[in-house]
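Progress against Task 2.4 (sequence-to-structure conversion) is shown through the following example record, which the project officer requested during the mid-term review.
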Amino acid sequence: MKEHIYNIIRCILLLPVVAIIVSCSSFEKDAARFQQTLISEQERALSVTRKLETLLHGSSMDSLLLVTRDAQGIYFYVFDAHKMVFWSDNHLAASHVYLNRYDRWELVHFDNAWCTSRWSRAEEYNILTVVPIKNDYSIENEYLRNEFVRPFKLGKDVKLLRRRTNEGITVKDSDGNYLFSLYKDDGNARADETESQETIHRHRAENKGSFSYQSILTPADEQTKHGSRQIYFYIIFATLFLTVLLVVGVYKLFKSRGIRNMSLGLKFQYLTVLLLLVAFGYIFFMALHYVDSRFEERQSQTLLKKAGYIQKSLQNIAMWTVDIADLGSEVSVDLRDLCFAYETDIQVYDMSGNLVGTSSPAIFDEGIISRHISPEPFFTGDIHVVRQDHIGTMPYLTTYIEFYNSNYFQLGYIEVPFYITEDERRHALDDFLARLFPPFFAMVVLVVVLGLVFSRQLTRPLQSLTEGISTFRIGKANAHLQYDGEDEIGALVREYNRMVDELSVSTERLARSEREGAWRTMARQIAHEINNPLTPMKLNIQQLQRLKHSGDPRFEAFFENSTKMLIEQIDTLSHIASSFSSFAKMPEVHADKTDVAAALYSVITLFRSNQQRVPLRYVGADHGVFAVADGEQLPQVFTNLLKNALQALEEQEDGDIIVIMKDMANEVEITVSDNGPGIAEEVREKVFVPNFTTKSTGTGLGLAISKNIVEGAGGTIRFETSDKGTSFFVTLKK
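Structure tokens generated for the chain above:
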């Protein structure tokens, strides 16, 4: 047990050591990637340097500027007799530049960055190629961050050493020459950093009039953020409102199981709300974009006006000056006065692009930005244009204008920077939102509510129309729909009401016509059935009359035969009358548990002694099989089926009838089959129609009555027929 405890304690004690080993391994991998990236950046920089070497003779400086634009993040400087004649960027601040040796990369610390630099010679020109590695501003805040520049990816805790190769990771160039070492900082502040912070505070106290660079000169611990609580409240309220709409919409969509299954009113509501929100959202964001762009545009116009005023003021100050150097240090005092008057910083550069005066010296004394003019307006001559520039991550507007004396002799250049703080921009947008949002949001809510109400008003008559159509029944009284509008829905409702009236009249006429047609058909059938036996009866009576008047001795014999035939015909007429009477009465079916086998077997026994001597086979029980049926009317069904089977075999010598009864779990099925010629295809649909018959002596009511008896008990009757015979199936439930 103690050994396990000791092992656990050892593991706990070894955890920091393992963490340090893993951290060192990760640091070594990062350093290896860093070295590969540095070599790649140096090779990219050298390729541009070679292009500059070929363009230095016979090309303008703006041509050099075009070449260096492709090498973003790399700086190039060209010197002629120790005087800088070209620079590709002015963001790198360098108080002093020394030429040590050619064609070798070395670590150099400029005023605001650590870099590797390389000197190259192109005849009388010297080219300094600089690859920045890490920012090193004298003050850190939101905009000035002392971190590795792109594409180098190392944390802020990684520091650079120039000579102490025994600590950290050694970094060399592509030729294997030592450049510098990387090591992880222990987090302790150094004395020079504290002194630098004190220097910045002193400069800030001396330069309280700085306008454009005020945020740059503010340490991170002194920066504050301001926001509008009112705008946040509006945004939260709008978000909740849209969230509620979205949740309700998703619920309705899920409940309807898709858009296709939604009602027309719900689809209209969805479309109305969606289009309104999209339209208002587009207008809202376009308004914000317009206000933001107009804000910057107004600041640019204001900046150009200020630059013009400052140009006139400096022109009056340097009225008789021929060389800008003659102004001396007084120019900075004049710039400070103009800075307060126009509420903007001012820089003045000579004709070589070097800074000679500024209203904010601290930003230059601390090496935060370079003392050279921006190369774009200087080498291209494109001035009087408001440009976007940046210091660290701080964007600002700036413009350049000529510095003339009273005789319009150019002494140098004037830069007027203007930093639009995020607080100012946010304040302008917040002010606009505070004015726009309440009425705008109220309008959105009002339009959404009106859209929902209007969609309900629009779809309500459609719902009434749908209900009216769904409850519409032919032969019954259908009510009219009420709608007072004169629009398309009103026209549809009026057409529906007209259709109801016309259909009611048509239904009445159709019912009357059907009744009359049924009576006419019935009358024709009865007349036909009665007329058939009347003709032979009339002939026999006429023959009896002739024989009696003539005294023919055959009268007695003929009288006996005739009276017998007349009785048979009278029985036929009686049968016809009783059949039609039975169909007219159609007695109600009283279904109950009935012994189907006993009823069927008794009918089969009766039909086995038929005059045609057709064999009748039966497969099934003779009693004890019960099903739900009308015990009194069920034998009539079997009688009709067997009689039809015998009539189908009248002219067939090998006739055969088979009856099968199947006793199943939930029902009883009786099948009556014959091998007759079958039922013709054109009359199969009329088999169960009353008054339809294919026999000259039938009434066409047997199968119709049988169907009524079977279906009244909850059963079914059907048939299958072909040229090989016909089978009728009667199914009764148990």
